Amino acid sequence: MLTPKEKAKELVDKFSNECLLTTDGAKVAALLAVDEIINNVLVGIDLPSTWGNYWNEVKKEIEKL
Asked: What are the residue ranges of helices labelled H in the chain?
């Protein structure tokens, strides 16, 4: 599994390259995707809290880029 920092970079790079977005636009898109995961996918699923922590860390790392 990628570290939160690696996952953040991977997501921003994917949105930048695949969607032809600027870095700032790719960061916004990646943050929206991570928010969807946190708020809709992880809610109500019986997963270890480490998954929620992981995605919150990914979000913080995206914001740092």
From this structure: 4-18, 23-36, 49-64
Half-sphere exposure of 59 (CA within 13 A, CB side): 15
Q: CA 55, CA 4: separation in Å to the nearest integer? A: 7
Look at the chain and count its residues.
Answer: 65
Q: How far apart are CA 43 and CA 65, in angstroms?
A: 27
Half-sphere exposure (Cβ direction) of 41: Cα atoms closer than 13 Å:
10
Tell which wins on pLDDT, 43 or 26.
26
Q: Domain ranges in the chain? A: 4-64
